[in-house]
Structures are given as C-alpha cells and as structure tokens.
Write a structure and sequence with these properties.
The chain is an alpha+beta fold. It has 2 domains: 33 residues; 45 residues, N-terminal domain of TfIIb. It has 2 helices and 4 strands, in the order H-E-E-E-E-H. A hairpin with a 5-residue loop joins strand 3 and strand 4. The N and C termini lie far apart (70 Å). One of its GO terms (biological process) is translation. Belongs to the eukaryotic ribosomal protein eL43 family. Putative zinc-binding subfamily.
Length: 91
C-alpha cells in the first residue's frame, strides 16, 4: 500500500492555478494559522483574528501587525531605528 500523504490546505484548488502558486498559498496559510509568542505575557498563544489583527488567547492583548505574521521585517527595522534615535536623543 502507498504511504498516505499529508493533506495541504491548498488541496481544495485541485490542479488549478499551477503548483508554484499553490505552494506559495500553502506557505502563507501555514504562517497565518500558526500560534506566535505574545510580547506581553511571553506565552505561545497569539493567533490571527483578521487581516493584521492579532490577539493573545491567554492575556487578551490585541495588537496590529502584519497581515500573515505579527511582526514584519519592515516593522522590526522601524522599531530598531526608533530605538537608536531615542538613545541618541538621551545622550
């Protein structure tokens, strides 16, 4: 008997749209459904509630972030720049 394959979230598309696009969609959906670490209580319970809206199931903290992940690379760059500017201002 052949081994069972794990069903991907893009199986609903069948053979439509091409394999490359289906793989990208599967990767995005995997990231968006994953639980992330809450910045306030440090527990792995941050889930996506809507586009760019993230909520911690443990402490109830809601924050705005990226569409598919809570912190985008651009957001991290902005935070780092603001932190450096604040440190220079204090000196």
């Amino acid at each position: 008997m052949p081994e069972e394959q794990k069903s991907r979230t893009t199986k609903r598309f069948g053979t439509r749209y091409g394999s490359k696009i289906r793989k990208k969609v599967a990767e995005i959906e995997k990231k968006s459904k994953k639980t992330y670490k809450c910045p306030k209580c440090n527990s792995e319970s941050m889930n996506r509630k809507g586009t760019g809206i993230w909520k911690c199931n443990k402490c109830g903290t809601e924050l705005a972030g990226g569409a598919y992940i809570p912190k985008t690379s651009t957001g991290e760059t902005v935070e780092r720049t603001l932190k450096e500017a604040k440190e220079e201002e204090e000196e």
